User: Fold this.
Amino acid sequence: MSEEYKPITGESQTESKGINIGGALGMADVTDAIAPVEKAENFGKTVGRLIKYLKPQLALLIIMMVLAGVGTWFAIWVPDIMKKVTNALVDSIQFFTDITREGNSQLYTYIAPILWTCASLYVLNALFQFASGIVAASMSQMVVRRMRTDLKDKLDKVPLKYFDGTPVGDVLSRLTNDIEMVSITLQESINQIISGTMTVIGVFIMMMRIDPLLSIIALVSLPLLFITSRIIIKKSQVQFASQQKKIGLLNAHIEEMYTGHRIIKLYCREEESVKAYEAINKELKSATRRSQFLAGIILPTIKFINNLCYVGICVGGGFRAGQGVITIGDIQALLQYTRQFAQPIEQVSNIANTIQTAIAAAERVFITFDLEEMEPENNLLTDVSHIKGFVDMENLRFSYRKDRPLITNLNLKVNAGESIAIVGPTGAGKTTLVNLLMRFYELDGGVIKIDGVNINDYTKDALRSLYGMVLQDTWLFNGTVAENIAYGNKDASREKIIASAKEAHAHAFIETMEHGYDTVLNEDASNISAGQKQLLTIARAILKDPKIIILDEATSSVDTRTEKHIQSAMLAMMQNKTSFVIAHRLSTIKNAAVILVMNQGDVVELGNHETLMSQKGFYYGLYQSQFAGFNDDNRNDGTAS
Assistant:
């Protein structure tokens, strides 16, 4: 299979940057499942902003740093103390046979306290590291909770156009993956950085105290270790990125084939599907072979350099001990310090990729924090109990993009209790009009008044409490049927819920469900049909008993017989209420008292069905395009009226 093949459901893979020993070795990491590796556009600025964001948890951060630093120093002291035991054993003639309380009490009483001290230091090291981990976990969870709350509050304040222009997955990723990535870094990486930094400083001081000359041998090996591992790891990361890309392609292909297996069988494309699978699998095999080869030489190379360092210290230490400059215990301590000195290099290299990804994730969150907010609603009207439903639209202008005007000069007056049907081709501005009515978007010009008061003078919550909506695209949440119906009226009794369901002709199918009104709808309400979903949303609107009703092709997912029942229920619901009915099927609004015809954002015709048909204008053309062919068919089979 060529590189050009891209399954429909394939995900883009971002090549990782920086050093990641775990990733280079092909090891699974929790961060791999959270987010692809990205690079922050402004690393330093984001780090500074993240530090400022940590200010409320500054005390915990300092405590964590102190605990981690002290715990690290406990471990650093042990080799310097243990060398005394080695020197004592070397100086003792009887250490092979008689290190007992009776035989050599002086030697025993000298070694035992040292060993107990070392054991105590290791215990203290473990306790302090454990405590620093607990503090880090608490701090990270506090920060993440605050960040997630702040982000949620921010998203509640941004205009609706942000959600229209941003994929849902991206918004969810910022609330979940990006913040979780920051949490992992705060909890684990900072602790490792602090411990590693303290280890490097402490070990270097201890080595220089023992023998500066031998310390240089250990120091020379570190740049060699870092440079060599960096070269190999960067090459292996490229190959592992290629491997992950092939895995993504393979998984996407498998998902695509099994999701659409009926279509594949229908068009007899099984053989092509298998060939594509084998081609991707072959490429994956090749990429895996290359990546595993490079990963296989990383640890041996690191061990080889470390062993050279050990040999250098042993040989140099032997000469220095022979000259009486240092002792055997000093050599032992230097070897232990050399091992400790190399560990932070590996740790920092291993978490560099995680830190880079976390800063990129934090940058995405901060970008959201910087989004423009809606204007605050201070000193606005909240009482809408007196509203009757008179709507007046004057000289409306609106565009989603400044260079593409949609509504240029729309004027409309709707009397209280009047029902008006809105028709027009796709993109005419029908749904936009009701979105403006509910202030989902702000006008570019003009004014909308309800009972003579500008809708901008009301709070959005008060304004939207006037409306009841039934959309073509239904929305139900994970909960019981009764809870979904009562979504707009949380204080509704069970009797009112049932009465609303009966009016919407939903009661019959609800009663046939396993638990009736207590049946839990699963995710996306996939355990009921599309028509049943729409019946529930209609019942929800009926129960709310709004002042103004908006119906956007509300019966599009129900059969013809049910549609007639619902239309009669809606006519009863719309009695004495101002109603806006958006219709695509003109047969559903033939009996409307007023039909508003829109095209390219403006009202082009206004009247009832008979008047508009007699004018033979735009509405006439729409009607003919829907029903002329149908009438011709009826004539051909002899059923025309």
About this structure: The first strand starts at residue 391 and ends at 398. The longest helix spans residues 105-157. Residues 1-38, 629-641 have pLDDT under 50 and may be disordered. The chain has 20 helices and twelve strands.
